UniProtKB/TrEMBL annotation:
Highest taxon of the lineage: Bacteria
Name listed for the protein in its UniProt record: Carboxyvinyl-carboxyphosphonate phosphorylmutase
PANTHER family for this protein: CARBOXYPHOSPHONOENOLPYRUVATE PHOSPHONOMUTASE-LIKE PROTEIN (AFU_ORTHOLOGUE AFUA_5G07230), PHOSPHOENOLPYRUVATE CARBOXYLASE
Species: Amycolatopsis regifaucium
Pfam families, sorted: PEP_mutase
Gene Ontology MF terms: catalytic activity
Length: 247
């Protein structure tokens, strides 16, 4: 499946829903349930490989996992590549193509220096990735200013400026991750329109229908599904220690 198909599924008000997968089997379940796209969760994949999130897993293992997922399904696959693992744009684009991915999440967190990359640096990286991949890659540019923010309204202007710069550099969609205040998220969507916005449903934040009403074009569950499955497994293991079979 092509990037064009993935790109056209980003519709404001009728968002693409992505229940992020972490291995080939979970990806197959996502496709079998009728979802038109499989997205990966870098956090969940890293954990299943025995590493922490935040680019702690070897890049070869992360892309090998992505390739297994892409081979297992017939729908478009978009891969969470964190902040790019220090790869040059051409190498990152090539590895995504080799894995069979037609989309990627690309963060502006700097895992080496800490904090966020400068707006100018991240926009430059997105522009280089766009040039290297052409139209064959849907770039979802993550805007991380809300991560750890105690006041979402206080960082909204920064988020908007970054998002507009990322669109200008060639991003197809922007992802203000962890923004959950309806008014703030709504203002963000309006400010960057007609650009596509990705949001995450969070406890205490807008639900799926409310996010659609706010005009987002894409909804990612991130680690949500993996955490839910893992919590269920932990509960069953606890029951098993008490002599109760989980089936």
């Amino acid at each position: 499946m092509t990037a064009a198909r993935l790109r056209e599924l980003h519709v404001a008000g009728t968002p693409l829903l992505l229940p992020n997968a972490w291995d080939a089997d979970s990806a197959r379940l996502v496709e079998a349930a009728g979802f038109p796209v499989v997205a990966t969760s870098s956090f969940a994949i890293a954990k299943t490989l025995g590493y922490d999130d935040g680019e702690a897993a070897p890049v070869k293992e992360m892309f090998a996992a992505a390739a297994r997922i892409a081979r297992a399904v017939s729908v478009p696959v978009t891969v969470d590549v964190e902040a790019g693992y220090g790869l040059e744009a051409g190498d990152l684009a090539a590895r995504l193509a080799e894995a069979g991915a037609v989309g990627c999440n690309y963060e502006d967190t700097d895992y080496v220096a800490g904090g966020l990359r400068s707006l100018e640096r991240q926009a430059e990286q997105i522009a280089k990735l766009r040039e290297a991949a052409g139209d064959a890659l849907v770039i979802n540019a993550r805007v991380d200013v809300f991560v750890g923010a105690s006041d979402e309204r206080a960082v909204l202007d920064d988020a908007i400026v970054r998002a507009k710069a990322y669109f200008e550099a060639g991003a197809d969609c922007v992802y203000p991750i962890l923004a959950k205040t309806p008014e703030v998220l709504g203002d963000f969507v309006k400010a960057v329109a007609p650009g596509a916005v990705n949001a995450m449903p969070l406890p205490g934040g807008p639900d799926l229908s409310a996010l659609a009403t706010l005009g987002v074009a894409r909804i990612s569950l991130g680690t949500g599904l993996w955490k839910s499955v893992r919590a269920d497994l932990r509960a069953k293991l606890t029951e098993l220690t008490a002599g109760k079979l989980p089936y």
